[in-house]
Amino acid sequence: MKIVLITGISGSGKSVALRLLEDSGYTCVDNLPVKFLNEFINTVREEQLKQIAVAIDVRSPGDLATLPHVLTGLRSQGVEFKAIFLDASDHALMQRYSESRRRHPLTDRLRKEGKSASLLECIHAERELLAPMRDQEHVIDTSELTPGQLRAWMRDLIQAGRADVVLTFQSFAYKRGVPADSDLVFDVRCLPNPHYDPELKPLTGRDQAVAQWLMQFNNVNQMLDDITGFIRRWLPLYLQDTRNYLTVAIGCTGGQHRSVYVVEKLAERFADHSPLLIRHRNLPAIEQP
C-alpha cells in the first residue's frame, strides 16, 4: 500500500498536489482530523486499497501539535508513507491570496482569540503551528513554481522508491531567492558566465553548446570535482540519518546556464544513486527534463 501525506502552508499548492495524486489513481481525503489518521489507515488496510493520499493542515480540526507524534508512531508500526510539506514565501502567498480573494483559514480563529488577523499575521501564525512538521518532512518550496512544475515534481516524488534517501539536484536563480527546501546550497556565480556570449545567451545549461563552452574552463571542472567530493564524503552519513530526502541546490544569477549545467553533470556523476531527481526551478517548463 502506498500512502502519501500532504501538509503545508495554506496557498502553497496542496489542492494542485492532491489533484495530481487523484489523477494518478490515489484515493484522496482532504482535511482529515489528526485524531482519525490511525483509524483511517487501519480501515484502508482492511479494504486493501493500494494508493492513499491524505491532506492535513490548519483547516483540520484537532491538535496539529500531535501530528509529528502520530507519524512517528505509524512509522514504528511499520507503516511506510511519504510525507510532503508544501511551503512558499510570504510574498508569494500574499500575492496568491490577492489574486484568489480568498480568506485565510485562520482568520476567524485568531479573531475569536482576540488577536489581530491580517493576512500576514495569519500566515505567520500558521507557520508557527506547522513548524514541527516542516522540520521533519520533505519540503517543496512552491514560491517560484507553476502548477505544471509542481505537478511534475510531485509525480517524480511519488514514483521514487523508499529504499534509500531521495537525492535531488536542483538549480535556481539567486535573483529569485534561495529555495526554502534546500538542504545543501552551492553558489556557482563565480564561474564564467555564458550569458555574455550572444550565441549562448538564449540557450540553457542543458544545451550542448553551453556545456562545451563551460567545460573548457578548469575552474568549472574543479568546482564540479569539489562539490562531488563533498557530497560523496557526507552522503553516507545522511543515509544513516532518519531523513528520507536530501536536496542539493546549485545557484547562479539567472538559473539558466551555470547552475543548470552543474546540476546535469552532478546527476551524471551520481547516476548510480537511486532514487535520483533533477529539478530546474527557473527554467521554462518546456526546458525541464
TrEMBL record:
GO terms for molecular function: ATP binding; GTP binding. Residues 167-283 form the RapZ C-terminal domain. ATP binds at G8, I9, S10, G11, S12, G13, K14, S15. It comes from the Bacteria. Residues 1-158 form the RapZ-like N-terminal domain. Pfam families: PapZ_C, RapZ-like_N. Keywords: ATP-binding, GTP-binding, Nucleotide-binding. Signal peptide: none annotated. The keyword ATP-binding applies. GTP binds at D57, V58, R59, S60. PANTHER family: RNASE ADAPTER PROTEIN RAPZ (PTHR30448:SF0). HAMAP family: RapZ_like. This is RNase adaptor protein RapZ. It comes from Neopusillimonas maritima.
